[in-house]
Amino acid sequence: MNFDTDNENALWRIAERAWSSRLAAQQWVVHNLAGADGNGAPLIEVPEGFVRAPDLLATKGNQNIYWEVKFRTAPTINRDTGEKEHWMDRAKVYDYQRVRDATGYQVFVVLYDASARRGEGQWYEIPIEKLTACGRPEVRRAADLDPVDAWVWPLAEMTPVQGPRVDVPVQDQPKIGRAHV
Q1: Nearest 5°: CA angle at 85, between 104 and 127?
Q2: Hey, is 112 helix, strand or coil?
Q3: What confidence score (pLDDT) does residue 119 get?
Q4: How does pLDDT run along the chain (181 residues), one tens digit per residue?
Q5: 124-160 per-residue burial string, b: 16 or more CB within 10 A, e: under 16
Q6: Which residue, of 4, 14, 28, 55, has the greatest Cβ tally within 10 A?
Q7: What is the Cα–Cα distance from 160 to 116, expressed in whole angstroms?
Q8: In 3-state terms, what secondary structure has residue 88?
Q9: Best CA proximity match to 121, nearest among 110, 129, 132, 130
Q10: Beta-strand pair 63-72/56-60
Q11: What is the DSSP letter of 96?
Q12: In whole angstroms, what is the distance from residue 29 CA to residue 101 CA?
């Protein structure tokens, strides 16, 4: 999947900015690694080599937390169980686990699901170690229909959290629970 990293109006970029602003409002110093100039995610060198960095590193006092911020219009539904699920590139999950193991810092995936609460939206978070424990590998299709080596996990394993408002342009809002005229 190709992302236009310069598109400040992309839904995933809007979610990153919203979460970063939330952290800053809570007196965290936020290093926006996803906003680094260049092509793609910045790399961190760990003892085993280079890995992709999560989107944000938040620092307050002696505490450091990495955040990978995701935006989804809706979860997918597991055909076998009926469970709502989310997914991301498997290689990134492995990289974020290596960042956690090498640094000792917590790494969270925080996800804004625009379809939750009948289209009002909801933030969810999950620590990377829980995400790896409850998920599974699977091939999924990106928006451009290219196959993606994915890591899939149940939405039920994520914790709903209070988060900032994410203003989704009308044309991109999910149609869940809305009357169509």
Answers
A1: 15
A2: strand
A3: 76
A4: 333 444 545 788 889 999 999 999 999 999 988 766 555 668 899 998 999 999 999 999 999 999 999 999 889 999 999 999 999 999 999 999 999 999 999 999 999 998 888 778 899 999 999 999 999 999 998 878 889 999 999 999 999 999 988 876 655 554 443 332 2
A5: bbbebebbbeebeeeebeeeeeeebebbbbbbebbee
A6: 55
A7: 10
A8: strand
A9: 110
A10: antiparallel
A11: H
A12: 22
Q: Model-level pTM? A: 0.85
pLDDT of 179 reads 34
Q: What tokens appear for 100 in the block?
A: 């956690």
Selection from 117, 109, 107, 55 nearest residue 84 by Cα: 117
Contact residues for 158 (Cβ-Cβ < 8 A; gap 6+): 86, 111, 124, 125, 126
Q: 125 and 73 in contact (C-beta within 8 Å)?
A: no
Q: Tell me the two tokens of residue 61.
A: 């006092």
Cα–Cα distance for residue pair 179/166, rounded to 1 Å: 22
Which residues partner with 29 through β-bridges?
59
Please count the CA atoms within 13 angstroms of the CA of 68 that sit on its side-chain side: 24
DSSP per residue, 10-66: SHHHHHHHHHHHHHHHTT-EEEESTT-SSSS--EEEETTEEEEPPSEEEEETTEEEE
